[in-house]
Design a protein that fits this description.
Elements lengths: L1 E7 L2 E8 L2 E6 L6 E10 L1 E6 L1 H7 L3 E2 L6 H9 L7 E6 L10 H8 L4 E5 L4 E4 L1 H6 L9 E3 L1 H10 L4 H16 L3 E6 L5 H10 L6 E7 H9 L7 E3 L2 E9 L27 H13 L4 E5 L2 H14 L3 E5 L8 H7 L1 E5 L2 H13 L10 H6 L4 E3 L10 H10 L16 H6 L14 E4 L13 E6 L2 E5 L1
Helix pairs in contact: 1-6, 2-3, 9-10
């Protein structure tokens, strides 16, 4: 296969593909499909996705426009014709009124209603749903962290054939945005789900999947090690452990207290975290630690330093300045979600006022030598790396001024954080072909003409 007339930097080149790899990059390589001077970049990766949740969210009641608990309840109440109302994407951190079971009862009646927060760390249930999920009599109906995750699992009880069909649609949509691979952090036994999907013909994405504490011993018993290829499209990822909560839920673990005097939730303290990380690492599975608050990040870095192992931290949203250089020094990658900065700017100014210069500190981290990996945390933000890159490069959205522009990074740096290969001989023929300069303005709406995975089209406009 030969692709011709592609812009690569300041050159116009042809690319010859053989056996799923780039065999030659040069001029006048022969007859092939012309792309008329469109730009080519390496295929894009989203390094943090909850893929089944992303597929399910497209079928749920959208609450993202709700500006109050009363408005969210009313939106949910309009879906009372469903046997179970499931809403998604509410953000109560900036609401003036509080979400309560009583408020939701008034709008939804006896129909069970479960509303999932945008960050996935909280669920808001009416009385019928509280009884259904084992929390009858809960004082507010707002469940957080582990209680919320247990409800998620109950909501996910959709037949495999149905959810896999939705996952196929979601994968095709990702390919249309130039995506060739994802890291799936779904809180489930992801190996089984993806082996089933690939056996059924899912072939639009490369998938690297993580393992959680409840499945760590199973993964070790099955001999799984980080980097093992179980299939051409399926690779073993890392051991994911959550040590704190989230900003919107006010459970991220911080040095300074929230308005109520608490410091958030340290869900896995160091004395529990260290042996878990050691167990995984000694079995060949690299640790991947969720830490959002600044104190949670310090403790996570302390754990990596104590064990003397490399790994990854997910989110690293609020950091102490003293921790910026520790990521590079310890060999800990930083997996971040830039679009969260756009979603969280108002709630951050409310709950972390005076500290937002240390929030989503991408420029500071790069200048300190850290390795950034970009993702969406879909369904928290859209599975679209162009949206992700635009947020990191501009720090602006919706016509508002750039938020902490001193933390902006370059388009080249954003693209590097969103890819895993290069356009060079011997590299995988994972490519995205786009209509505009990928290092220019307005990345958010980038038109994608074609996507290739191992030299095979997964999207062609």
């Amino acid at each position: 296969m030969i692709l011709t007339d592609l812009r690569l930097g300041d050159r116009v080149v042809d690319i010859r593909i053989e056996g799923g790899l780039i065999a030659e990059v040069g001029e006048h390589l022969g007859a092939g499909e012309s792309f008329d001077g469109r730009w080519v970049v390496p295929g894009l990766w989203d390094h943090h996705v909850h893929f089944t949740q992303w597929a399910l969210t497209s079928r749920r009641v959208d609450l993202s426009t709700a500006t109050s608990a009363a408005e969210a309840a009313a939106i949910a109440g309009a879906a009372r014709d469903r046997g179970l109302i499931v809403g998604a994407n509410f953000r109560d951190g900036v609401w003036a009124d509080a979400p309560t079971a009583q408020l939701l009862d008034a709008a939804t009646g006896d129909v069970p209603a479960v509303l999932v927060s945008a960050d996935l760390h909280a669920v808001w249930l009416n009385s019928a749903a509280l009884a259904r999920f084992g929390h009858a009599g809960h004082p507010t109906g707002l469940l957080k962290e582990d209680d919320a995750f247990a409800v998620h699992q109950g909501l996910d009880a959709v037949g495999d054939e149905t959810v896999d069909g939705w996952a196929r649609d979601a994968a095709a949509a990702a390919a249309r945005r130039g995506v060739v691979g994802i890291v799936d952090l779904e809180m489930a036994w992801n190996r089984g789900a993806w082996e089933r999907r690939i056996a059924a013909g899912h072939d639009a994405l490369r998938v690297e999947f993580n393992v959680y504490t409840q499945d760590l011993e199973r993964a070790i018993a099955e001999g799984m090690r980080t980097g093992d290829a179980l299939h051409e499209l399926l690779t073993v990822g890392r051991y994911k452990v959550l040590t704190d909560g989230s900003l919107n839920t006010r459970t991220a673990y911080t040095w300074e207290p929230y308005e109520d005097g608490t410091h958030g939730m340290l869900t896995v303290p160091p004395e529990t975290l260290l042996p878990l990380m050691r167990r995984a690492f000694e079995a060949g599975i690299l640790p991947d630690v969720h830490a959002i608050g600044d104190q949670a990040n310090t403790l996570a870095l302390d754990a990596f330093e104590t064990l003397g192992v490399a790994g990854r931290i997910e989110h690293a949203q609020l950091l102490s300045e003293a921790d910026y250089p520790r990521f590079a020094a310890l060999g800990v990658e930083v997996s971040v979600q830039p679009e969260h900065a756009m979603d969280d700017r108002d709630v951050s100014e409310r709950f972390w006022a005076g500290r937002t210069d240390r929030l989503y500190a991408f420029r500071s981290l790069l200048d300190a030598g850290a390795t950034l990996l970009f993702g969406s945390d879909a369904p928290v933000a859209p599975l679209d790396p162009w949206v992700t890159m635009d947020a990191a490069v501009t720090r602006e959205r919706d016509g508002r001024p750039s938020w902490h522009p001193e933390q902006r990074i370059t388009p080249q740096e954003a693209l590097a954080a969103s890819t895993r290969s290069t356009i060079a001989v011997g590299q995988p023929a994972d490519l995205a072909i786009v209509d505009r300069d990928p290092l220019g303005p307005d990345l958010r709406t980038m038109p994608v003409a074609a996507t290739l995975l191992a030299g095979r089209y997964t999207h062609h406009a």
